[in-house]
Amino acid sequence: MNSRRNFLQKLVASAIAFPLIPADAYTLNEKKEDPAWDGPPLRVAIMGLGSYGTRVAEAMRDCKRARLTGVISGTPAKITNWQSKYNIPAANCYNYENFDRIKDNHDIDAVYVITPNALHHDQVIRVAKAGKHVICEKPMAVNAKEGQEMVDACKKANVKLLVGYRMHFEPKTLEIIRMRKEGELGKIGFFQGLSGFTIGDPTQWRLNKALSGGGAMMDIGIYSINGARYMVGEEPVWVTAQETKTNPEKFKPGVDETIQFQLGFPSGAVASCLSTYSMNNLDRFFLDGEKGWAELWPATGYGPIKGRTNKGELTQPHMTHQTVQMDEMAAIIQEGKQPVVPVDGDEAVRDLKIIDAIYEAVRTGKKVELK
Ligand code: NAD
User: Fold this and answer.
1) Atom of ligand 1 at shortest distance to CA of 54?
2) Which domains are delineated in the chain?
């Protein structure tokens, strides 16, 4: 029964062909009521049982249409612990050597890759080759070339590739996007994005370029890049950037500590952003238009997100981001639902191209044009 269901589900999923994203990715979706789902849940295996993987697993307890059914880990003790905590059968447990065998597992529809950044590329491609849909954490890859290879591999395998952009489902964020799209803020002129925190343990993988692919920009600065795009509603055409390093011992070559960067958009709007591993209290977005303004502060933490506009406080309720994200991603994978802001691999490659350009601008000291 399960395998028949799985077969039918895959048939439906592949019939709703790519691409998910409309030509103008920022036009408002038609407001369709999401009919109550009476089909099977999306059965997800988590790869990488670390701090964020644990957060996602806990949040999935409240999901209506996504369910944790498998794990992939290199640590047998963690597997045993997760098996008892989440009721996961031994047949759905894998390690990094044997997870290609997930191909033959009919109780798993998708794998959520939540490992260090530089591992995502190979792991996502292996999952795609095993015929399972993939959800991958941000940054999807460590550069645009690798990101594009992941997108191509998933297309070739006819599986969907989604990226853990949880803010794309956050109600206050979506309200500001609605206001901007409906003209309530007027012509947008400026966005400011501040993303940073003081990072601790100098031995962690986030400060090891071989595993992180970079520094603060890869980990936290990406929120300002992605935020600038969904708040302004355009794709940037140029980048300038400047780096400051106060602690070269902790932040080795290739691991950025603090980068200020500027983005220019086709309309003439500009963005000014800060990405850092050396300052706290930096999680703030500000959007300014001719008719109004909007602020989110905190803008991208786990919440509650707080926001206000020239019209007053935003009052949309807080919902656990990862619960909403996983239910929405189940709808995207199973029914081809279109999110207001894309969460697919192409969306991630757009961010990675900007990260590549920021690093180039830092290296050369020049303005970098984006194609
Ligand atoms: P973490 O260190 O807590 O967990 C990483 C996991 O990967 C660990 O279980 C570790 O054992 C495993 N792993 C597998 N191979 C490894 C290797 N070779 N070296 C080191 N660890 C290895 O990290 P995390 O905070 O859970 O971050 C994981 C991913 O999730 C990152 O890509 C990060 O950017 C992303 N993340 C996203 C959010 C978000 O809000 N969307 C928040 C935190 C982290």
Assistant:
1) 26
2) 2-166 (3.40.50.720), 167-318+345-369 (3.30.360.10)
